[in-house]
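[agent] plan:
  1. take the single chain provided in the ticket
  2. run structure prediction with default settings
  3. attach structure tokens to the ticket
  4. add a short note for the reviewer (M.T.)
[agent] executing step 1
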Amino acid sequence: MEEANKPVRNKGGRPKKEVTKGQRIPIKCTSYEKMVIKAKARKAGFAVSEYLLQLGLNGQVDSKVKTLPKEVMALTSTLNHNAANLNQLAKKHNSVTDVLTPLDRVALLTLCNELKDLVTLIRNYLQ
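[agent] step 2 finished; step 3 output follows
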């Protein structure tokens, strides 16, 4: 009687899937055909089995590869460049022996202004 009132403990682990993919379809092909299929699957961003499954079910494969617009790539490269410059200036400022020179301070102000301009460009692009 007391055991019936006891809560069931979760054993942990991964929950069971409702529908499992346990069936296999072996195919025969040449090594060249296998290489071509692998290359096409990699280009589409899928594993070979998922690529063949999508191809068999839908007759085509929608690529997972997403490309960013050129503007976004340009902003990303500019941000990376400015981040590297800012990191160098911060390292110099935090070192014990060196202090920021007036030239470094001007460079820091220039970087801050460029970053503000980039933020404005990003906001305008996203709207």
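[agent] step 4 note for reviewer: The chain has a mean pLDDT of 80.
[agent] ticket updated
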